[in-house]
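Morning run. Coffee first, then this:
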Amino acid sequence: MSESVSVPEMAKQTESTPNQGGKVEHAVWTERMLAALGNGVKGGKWFSLIDKVYSPGNLLAAWGQVKENKGAAGIDKQSIKGFAANAWKFLSELRKDLKQGTYQPEAVKRVEIPKAGGKTRPLGIPTVKDRIVQTAVKRVIEPIFEKEFLPMSYGFRPGKGCKDALREVNEHLKAGYTHVVDADLKGYFDSIPHDLLKSEN
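And here it is:
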C-alpha cells in the first residue's frame, strides 16, 4: 500500500526569507531552523534533515520545479508527462522509500551534446524521480551552504549567474584592472576523487 501525500497549508505558500542573496523556503525551513541558521548550530553540524527532504510539502514543491523545468526522460524512459499522470502515486512511493531508507537512485542516462568546433560534451540525464529527490535535497541544504559562500562566488547559486559575474568583471576593469583570466578544468567531474568525496572522514 502506498502512503498518501497530503498537501499541508505551508506547501501552498510562496513566502520566503532572504538569505544572503538567496531565499529560504518557508515550506521547508521552520522558524526554529531559520533561527539556528542565523545563529549557527552547535558544533557546526546539522542533524536529522532527511525528514525535511521527504516532507509532503517539500516533495510536492520539488516536483513542481522539475515539472516546470521540463527536460528529457531518464534511463527508465518515464517522461514528465508520464509522471504527471500519476504524480500523487509516484510521490507517495518516493516519500515512503525516502522515509524507510530504501530509496535507490537509478543510473544516469548519458548523452553527448554538441560544442563549438565540432566537439561534444557528455550530459547526464537523471530519471524524473531522481530529479525530484535531488531538488528536494537542494531545497533543504542550499540555505546552509549559502550562508558560508562568499559574495564573489556566482556559480549555480540562487539569484546569481554569469551576467552578475560579468558585471563584477566590468567594475574591476573600470577600477583600472587590465587582465581577465578565464580558466576551465578539463573533465573535472570525471577526475575528482569520488571515494574521498563519499567518505565521512
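Confidence is low (pLDDT under 50) at residues 1-22. Good start to the day.
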